[in-house]
Design goal:
499 residues, Arc Repressor Mutant, subunit A, globular, WH_DNA-bd_sf, P-loop_NTPase, DNA-binding, AAA+ ATPase domain-containing protein, ATPase_Atu1862_pred
C-alpha cells in the first residue's frame, strides 16, 4: 500500500481482507480516493473487483485494467441481472452513478448490490466490493431522499458488510465522516485506515475504533494528505501511520491547484460571455407543464356569464381585542391537546382543526401561521408554558436556541431544556416520545442521538446507567434520570429484535 513509519513497506494481506472488511475515513482532500485507487491497482490481477462509483472517478481504471464500465441509467431489474452475470463470469466492473440524482443513486446501488448478494451459491467466488462515499448509501439519519429509497439502500449496505463474507463479498467502504455513516454498517469492519479529520465527534469515533485514548485523537488533525493510521488483522496489530504510494491511473477530479487567469482584453470579455460560440451546444429547456386552472377561477368565469346580482352587504364582524384573541387561541390549543390522541397526530391535520375551531369562535383573520402554530404546538406538547413566571430571562435564552433546532424536534429539545433549567431528572424515553408526537421510545432515543450529532445536546450516563443530558449552548445540565420510566412492558425477545 505504501510505506510505514518509521520505514519499510506497508503491506495489506488481501486474503485476510476478504474475511474481515475495511473502513476508510477522512475529510475531503485527505486522500481516500487515492488510497482506494492504490488498493484496486495493486490487487487488480489477484481478485475480482466491483466498484460503486458515485462521482465517476474510477472509470479511468477500466482502460488500464480491463474493467467493464456499467452505466447506471437502467432499470433496477436490469442492474440486478447484470450483477448476477458479473458474479457468474467473474468480471471486474465499475458501476458509474455519475449522471443520477441522489435518490436514483441509492436505488441503483441497492439493486446492483442485491444482485451480487442474491447470486447462486455455485458462483460465490471472492469479490472485492469497493463503495466510495459510503455515507450516501448508508446514511446515519434521513436526508432529502424518500424513506423507501433510504431503507432499500441501507439494507443492501448492511447485507454487504454483515452477511457478505459467507457469499464471498468483501466490503471496502470509504466515507468523509463517520458521524454520517450508519453505525451498524461501520461496526462490521475489522480493518481501519483513518485519514485527516478535524471535527471533534469524528476524531473521537475514529480514536474509539482504533482503541486510542481521547488525548491521542488530536493526531488526526496533523495527518498529511495520503497519510493514514492503519489497524486491523489485514494491516497491523497495533495502530501505525502509513503513507500511501503512487498510482498508475488518475481520477477525473484531481486535487485543485491555482492557475493564472487568461489575459483577455476587457473589450472582448462581454462578447465572450454574451455571444454564442461556433460549436457551443444548444441547451434544451424542457417545456413547463400547463398549470391547472384553479376551481375558484372556473367558478368565477361561470359567475361572470350570469346576470349580475347585487351582492348582499355583509356586516363586518367585530374584531376581538388582542388580549381576548390570545386567550381564545390558548383555550383552543388546550382543547386540541386535551384529546389523548392529539399528542400523536401530525401537525398539518391539527392545524386544520385549529383553524376550523377559530372560525367557529369567530376569530377573524389568520390567528396563527403554520410555522407559529407548529412552534406553539411543540412547546405545548413538551408541557411547558410559553411565558413562565419565574426564570423568564433564562427561559428566553432556551427559546432563542430552539429556533436553530429543526421544527419537528423543537418540542423534544425544549422538554430537555426545561428539565435542565429546573435541575430536574432527565425525561424518560416515553416522555421524549410524547413530546415528539410518537409512540415509539426507540425513535425518541434516535432523535436524541440526532440532536447530539448536531451539537445541541451531549448525552452521558452515570454509574447507575441513568441518563444525563447537557446543553452546551446554554450551559445547563439535567439531573440523572431513568430513561425507561413509563415504558410499556414488552416481550424481551421482541424488544431484542427491535434493537
Amino acid at each position: 500500500m505504501g510505506t510505514a513509519s518509521p520505514g519499510g513497506p506497508a503491506t495489506l494481506d488481501l486474503e485476510e481482507l476478504l474475511s474481515t472488511r475495511l473502513l476508510v475515513q477522512g475529510n475531503s482532500g485527505s486522500g481516500k480516493s487515492h488510497l482506494l485507487r492504490r488498493l484496486l491497482e495493486q490487487s487488480a490481477g489477484l481478485v475480482q473487483q466491483v466498484i460503486i462509483d458515485p462521482e465517476g472517478d474510477f472509470v479511468s481504471l477500466a482502460e488500464h485494467h480491463g474493467h467493464v464500465v456499467v452505466e447506471a441509467d437502467r432499470t433496477e431489474a436490469d442492474l440486478q441481472r447484470i450483477a448476477l452475470r458479473v458474479r457468474q463470469h467473474r468480471i471486474s466492473v465499475v458501476l458509474n452513478l455519475e449522471e443520477l440524482d441522489a435518490e436514483a443513486q441509492m436505488r441503483s446501488a441497492a439493486a446492483f448490490l442485491n444482485g451480487l448478494f442474491e447470486a447462486d451459491r455455485s458462483v460465490w467466488y471472492p469479490v472485492l466490493v469497493v463503495v466510495d462515499e459510503a455515507q450516501l448509501f448508508a446514511p446515519a439519519i434521513a436526508g432529502d431522499v424518500s424513506d423507501e429509497a433510504r431503507k432499500v439502500s441501507l439494507g443492501a449496505m448492511t447485507n454487504l458488510m454483515c452477511r457478505g463474507r459467507k457469499r464471498g463479498l468483501a466490503g471496502v467502504i470509504a466515507t468523509q465522516r463517520l458521524a454520517k455513516l450508519a453505525k451498524n454498517v461501520a461496526a462490521e469492519a475489522s480493518n481501519f485506515l483513518m485519514g485527516r479529520t478535524f471535527l471533534d465527534i469524528d476524531m473521537a469515533r475514529a480514536a474509539d475504533l482504533l482503541g486510542l485514548e481521547k488525548r491521542q485523537a488530536e493526531k488526526f488533525r496533523d495527518l498529511d494528505p495520503g497519510q493514514f493510521i492503519a489497524l486491523g488483522p489485514a494491516l497491523f496489530r497495533r495502530p501505525a501511520p502509513i503513507r500511501i504510494g503512487d498510482v498508475m491511473t488518475a481520477g477525473r477530479s484531481g486535487r485543485p491547484t491555482l492557475l493564472p487567469l487568461p489575459e483577455t482584453p476587457s473589450e472582448d470579455r462581454r462578447d465572450l460571455v454574451f455571444t454564442r460560440g461556433e460549436n457551443e451546444p444548444l441547451i434544451q429547456v424542457p417545456p413547463r407543464r400547463a398549470t391547472p386552472v384553479p376551481t375558484a377561477d372556473v367558478l368565477a368565469q361561470l359567475a361572470r356569464s350570469l346576470p349580475a346580482q347585487p351582492a348582499p352587504v355583509a356586516e363586518p364582524e367585530p374584531e376581538l381585542p388582542d388580549s381576548e384573541k390570545e386567550a381564545a387561541i390558548e383555550e383552543i390549543l388546550g382543547e386540541l391537546l386535551s384529546d389523548p390522541e392529539a399528542a400523536f397526530a401530525v401537525g398539518p391535520a391539527l392545524f386544520q382543526e385549529f383553524l376550523l375551531r377559530c372560525r367557529i369562535r369567530r376569530i377573524s383573520g389568520e390567528p396563527l401561521s403554520l410555522n407559529d402554530f407548529r412552534r406553539r404546538l411543540a412547546v405545548s406538547r413538551a408541557g411547558i408554558s410559553v411565558n413562565p413566571e419565574q426564570e423568564a430571562a433564562e427561559w428566553e435564552r432556551a427559546l432563542a436556541v430552539s429556533t436553530e433546532v429543526p421544527d419537528d424536534v423543537q418540542g423534544l429539545f425544549l422538554l430537555v431544556a426545561r428539565a435542565a433549567l429546573d435541575r430536574a431528572p432527565c425525561p424518560s424515553d416515553a416522555d421524549l416520545a410524547k413530546a415528539y408526537g410518537t409512540r415509539s421510545p426507540a425513535r425518541a432515543r434516535r432523535l436524541l442521538t440526532y440532536l447530539e450529532s448536531r451539537g445541541f445536546v451531549v448525552v452521558q450516563a452515570d454509574m447507575r446507567n441513568r441518563r444525563i443530558v447537557s446543553l452546551p449552548h446554554l450551559g445547563w445540565e439535567t439531573a440523572p434520570g431513568d430513561p425507561n420510566v413509563g415504558a410499556a412492558p414488552s416481550d424481551p425477545i421482541l424488544a431484542q429484535l427491535a434493537l
